[in-house]
Amino acid sequence: MDFIFDLIGRFHPLIVHLPIGFLLLGLMMLVFDRKDNKHQKIIRFAFLWGTFSTLAAIITGSVQYNREGYPWEDIQGHLILGLLTFVISFLMYLKLNNYGFFQKISYKFLGYCLVVILSITGHLGGNLTHGKDHLTEPLPDTIKEALGMEVPSRNLILLPDSHQKLPLYSGVIQPILDQKCVSCHNPKKTKGGLLMNNYKGLMEGGEGGPIILAPSFLESEILKRIHLPREEKKHMPPKAKTQLTKAEIKIIEKWVNFGAPEKKTVSELGLSPQLFTSFFPKDETGIYPDLKLKPLNISLMDSIKSTGLHVAPIYKTSPLLKISAINNHDFNDQNASILFNVSDYVVDLDLGQTQVTDSVFEILKKLKYLTVLKLNHTAITGNGINQLKDLKHLKQINLVYSGFKFDKLEKMYSFPALEQVFLFGTPTSYSTFEVPDQFQTIFQMGNYKLDEEIHQTL
Amino acid sequence: MDNIKKLLEERRVVEAKFNSRRHFIKDCSLGLGGLALGSFLNSCSTDNPATPAYTKDRSLNPMASMPAPYLPKVKSVIYLHMVGAPSQLELFDFKPELKKLHNKPCPPSLLDSKKFAFIQGVPNMLGPQATFKREGETGNWVSNHLPHFKKVIDEVAFLKAVHTDQFNHGPAQMLMHTGSPRNGRPSIGSWVTYGLGSVNNNLPGFVVLTSGGTPDAGKSVWGSGFLPSVYQGVQCRSKGDPVLYLKDPKGVSRNLKKKVLASINEINLKEYQKFGDPEVLTRINQYEMAYRMQVSVPKVMDIDKEPDTIKEMYGVKPGKESFANNCLLARKMVEQGVRFVQLYDWGWDSHGSSPTEALDSGFLKKCKETDRPIAALILDLKQRGLLDETLIVWGGEFGRTPMWENRLGIQNSPGRDHQGDAFTMWMAGGGIKKGAVHGKTDEIGYSGIEGRVSVYDIQATILHLLGFNHEQFTYQFQGRPFRLTDVEGHVINEILA
User: Fold this and answer.
1) Does the predicted model carry a pTM greater than 0.80?
2) Considering Cα of B259, then B263, then B264, then B266, what sign does the dihedral take?
3) CATH number for the domain running over A298-444
């Protein structure tokens, strides 16, 4: 006869709706009747049954909690607030029946308490059955971010080096399905009787039969549904949900066409890396450091622009700045002090064809994330360039047609990140100075020559 | 039967009477009003194309520089277009098998359902009119016609199986540069300047330099199509006035000109504030740009001041119109922050029907004219630290057949017909995998059998290197967003570093 208890427990989701309805009706009547006092009888009736049904809900709920193994942490709030709902609605009922002791508590207080507690109890109950993100999940990502919620990365990330060794199904296909399909096709919520959270479920298919059709794999239901126009009711994922990307569709198509193998790896199936490039992590900042900075405020940016410098982020959404004096050939060392204001932001600085001299290094040394520096066609001779040795990200220096002297070259040997220095057209490039072998690839003197006329005569 | 005819006739008369003078006037007023309303609502577009998202920040300067949506690998592009379509079989695509078939009749299977511009009946095959050698550390093939190119071959990534669906010059050039074989779309340089603007305030963002003649497709290959016309290419000449009609007329001082322009622009600005037409902004900007260009262009176009070693390296001919001059100018432009430099070199249409079009004379002259300047351009950019931030693209509008062209059934000097199914292009510079070879053609170089890439793929790749996703880079026009690559195009990752 044990099943009786299970059955009673299962009635909890039905019964909970009764107190919500009764009590809300009672509260609405209280407001409606606050002046005339004509319907006291009905109000009492509503709260009597509200209290009873709350009790019934608590009992069935506790039975379900006992029999179906919900963890205490998950249901404690719901249970305690449920009890509180019962207490308050009972108090309300007593007060309505004029038990002297309760006259001191106001209707208003009890009423507000009941509304709040009832709503929270109901919401927590809903969270248990529909999941905690039931209400927040449909929100657009931008609102989620504004609310400070974590937006899960929706896209699969594969590594260019290792993806070939992954089994196609478990390493690529299932993660895609997990992100885009499983929220509706899982053991808890099994739309269309289809499970997509594991290989077995995919092979078994749903109410409408198998979704992967052998031997004409390309006519499989799964592909048909994906390819239906988004407006069609049967298109999957449903039009309001996050859609599969083109690259994802292509890979699922390949996999199904190979007969939906479970174990075969990407390389065994001979799939080209090009299919997977959109899953590789994006190199967003390239040679520049990957810094998380607050975007520079516009007025500061404008004040620098007003000096005739060209200021722009390295790409649209980046806080890092690229600054160039290309439109201001009169730019000099004094002007350069304005760069102090943005010392953390400048990663690419072009002071080529300007009036700057060696004393500009005093300022440049403060630009701690500077990665690319151009001083071509200037009077720079290299005095004091050793001040840049603490710039951990400085990778390129362009000194073409500057006055750079060869004896300053060795000061740059100790620069930690230096990759290229262009010295074409400087006194250094014409000197007989020999750069040590290990630095030959860094210091590029240019002076490339083409052979004399070698075309055969016509 | 007669009755029915009568009935119809009656109906016609009644209808005609019904359409009285009053109706005509009424229809007119509504119709014209509707037309006027249409233009108020910006024709049939649902959005407001007068201020597309991209130009919103540009308030009064449509050429204002804008950051790219993604991190760009290059700042500038130098596009070397060999007008007329150079033969890949005499330059980069080495086909020893074709040599064995030389002067033998073409198998009919190769001619089935193919369209040619001039080949008739069954032509003979034409073996490579060049000797090939592996050069550089990468050991990529290059022919004896490009002796200087071997010096830069390791900087270059080859695309050996580019294909196009156009086999006539004009449409093929349009497709290559505007994404459509028909007129009306913006050229790639226009798209780029529209998206990125110009860093240098005194020079145009999109410069066109021609040698040998104007491309067959005319100036629309650097036109701005439906984009505001400020984004069209500015043609500069290496001979005579750099830019036509830029000089002040006799008796007009620069000061007077300044005053005149200020007044005109003030009036134009009022016009713009009243109607919001972006073409007015274009005009204001053109006047101001022209004024500044009067000083800046002669300076940047002056190659005399370059050191002799550089002049020698390029093989320039001062005062003349030459591809070498244009290459040196391209470097100077890029050095000054010009976004897109488009070079057209005319005369590569090697049909064999006349000496200038023959693979054994005119073609060799073109090779000689371009080989040295191109190698010099790459080396010069490299020694100035500019190669990493510049993309160089080389190619024609299509390729050439492995068959010997037999125009009017006559086999003349060695020459080849137009062929779009497989031809070679190369790219070099920032973001490019040095020495890469992508794509392979069949034994006679007739079709791509591996790594085929389309014209759209080339465009998608160029935009990618400049920091655009070609699928997201659109312009709202006539009620729908347009993009350079239309609905096609994949970035060619195989040649990207």
Assistant:
1) no
2) positive
3) 3.80.10.10
